[in-house]
Inverse folding.
């Protein structure tokens, strides 16, 4: 294996299990827990079905994490899924996965998180809308780049600032992540405790009436349940990016799988409790009447505590989303750094800062494209495309695990094998087909971004071959 050094510099391996677990929790716990209860309630499902959708999405994510944890035994390099795909399917498909991560999956998460962060800022301090006169301009009738321009400008500023922090060093950004993640877990626990013990009698839903709201039947119920799971899966998404920083995690073959499992279990427990609190406080009929542009958790906090409670929850949302965005910005560029070393990304992305030992150019590339995506769409459009495109590759990772276990490449014991990868693969197929059927425009746009990888692959391959010849 080539020693990937730049003037004797390598990435530092200094992140332990605790920091890695909190990084997973930080990547996962962000916007969805506060935002997605409204669209989930609008599916027509009852309270128990919505809680089951959250639980099912958590279990599916855990199955995926166990499968990716099995692949973590293949390498200790940074690059995560890019490395796994390369070892499983070859460089061509590895590039498709890495480029798709750059074009929509990873950077789309950055854009969506930054959008919600700025949306929460706007709820706290109303922002100007300088491009309001152009907000009617659209591309394909569902992309409105100039809508909510004030929110988008603040979101872009947030991405730029956090990218600067992450250029300083992995250890420093890890410490920031630990503090923020611990704070948001504590804040959510306080919110859960307060919601369960201080619900107003005139708005609280009694535990015994949880089955009182009728749900759709038959195939319509299944379709609506899958749609609700799509929303919930956004709230769980992001765990996979921990694998991108394997080159900076101590003993990654042990710590990456453990961090993935522990981090998702932490998030799952908090999500189930907090969503129960939401529906314990406000009937679903009321939640269904809230517009998509509002943050559902804020409506609930205002009912419980008035404007004071709304302000406190806004601060918690800001902390949670800021932490998730920071975690994502830490992990994503490590994949582009790895791709650049292989000759299949912009060559300067492999540069390491001489003082801070961070992939500073890869961080800047990620920052620029995230900002472009942020201007292109709304929160829900971005999250739906991210989940759809991500699960195309998640399913293929499970197939890779099955292939490598069968041919003896992976000899270590993989927890949950073969049940976990098979179930996750089947679910990925069902979710992909369902999303194409119900959201054809968003699916087509996501597929176009994935397919854009093909000409870029041959472009980078041409540059690499010419450099080798010269």
């Amino acid at each position: 294996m080539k020693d990937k050094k730049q003037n004797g510099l390598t990435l530092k391996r200094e992140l332990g299990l605790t920091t890695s677990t909190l990084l997973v929790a930080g990547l996962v716990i962000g916007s969805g827990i506060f935002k997605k209860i409204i669209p989930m309630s609008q599916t027509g499902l009852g309270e128990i079905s919505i809680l089951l959708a959250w639980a099912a999405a958590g279990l599916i994510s855990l199955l995926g994490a166990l499968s990716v944890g099995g692949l973590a035994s293949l390498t200790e390099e940074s690059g995560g899924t890019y490395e796994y795909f390369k070892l499983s399917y070859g460089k061509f498909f590895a590039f498709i996965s890495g480029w798709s991560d750059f074009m929509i999956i990873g950077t789309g998460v950055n854009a969506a998180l930054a959008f919600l962060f700025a949306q929460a800022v706007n709820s706290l301090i109303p922002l100007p809308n300088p491009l309001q006169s152009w907000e009617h301009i659209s591309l394909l009738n569902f992309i409105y780049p100039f809508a909510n321009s004030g929110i988008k400008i603040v979101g872009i500023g947030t991405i730029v600032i956090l990218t600067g922090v992450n250029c300083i060093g992995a250890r420093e950004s890890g410490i920031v992540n630990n503090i923020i993640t611990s704070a948001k877990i504590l804040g959510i626990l306080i919110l859960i405790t307060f919601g369960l013990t201080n619900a107003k009698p005139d708005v609280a839903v009694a535990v015994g009436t949880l089955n009182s709201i009728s749900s759709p039947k038959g195939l319509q119920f299944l379709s609506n349940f899958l749609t609700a799971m799509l929303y919930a899966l956004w709230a769980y998404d992001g765990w996979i990016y921990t694998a991108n920083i394997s080159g900076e995690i101590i003993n990654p073959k042990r710590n990456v799988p453990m961090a993935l499992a522990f981090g998702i279990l932490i998030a799952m427990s908090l999500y189930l409790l907090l969503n129960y609190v939401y529906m314990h406080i406000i009937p679903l009929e009321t939640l269904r009447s809230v517009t998509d542009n509002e943050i559902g958790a804020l409506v609930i906090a205002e009912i419980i505590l008035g404007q004071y409670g709304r302000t406190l929850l806004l601060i918690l949302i800001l902390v949670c989303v800021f932490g998730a965005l920071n975690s994502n910005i830490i992990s994503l560029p490590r994949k582009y750094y790895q791709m650049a070393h292989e000759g299949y990304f912009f060559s300067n992305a492999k540069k390491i800062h001489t003082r801070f030992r961070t992939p500073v150019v890869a961080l800047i590339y990620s920052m620029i494209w995230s900002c472009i995506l942020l201007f292109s769409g709304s929160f829900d459009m971005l999250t739906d495309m991210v989940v759809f495109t991500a699960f195309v590759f998640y399913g293929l990772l499970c197939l890779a695990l099955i292939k490598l276990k069968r041919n003896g490449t992976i000899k270590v014991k993989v927890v949950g094998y073969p049940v976990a990868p098979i179930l996750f693969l089947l679910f990925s197929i069902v979710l992909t087909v369902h999303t194409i059927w119900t959201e054809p425009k968003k699916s087509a746009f996501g597929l176009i971004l994935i397919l854009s990888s093909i000409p870029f692959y041959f472009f980078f391959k041409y540059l690499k071959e010419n450099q080798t010849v010269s």
The CA atoms of residues 7 and 361 lie 16 Å apart. The radius of gyration is 22 Å.
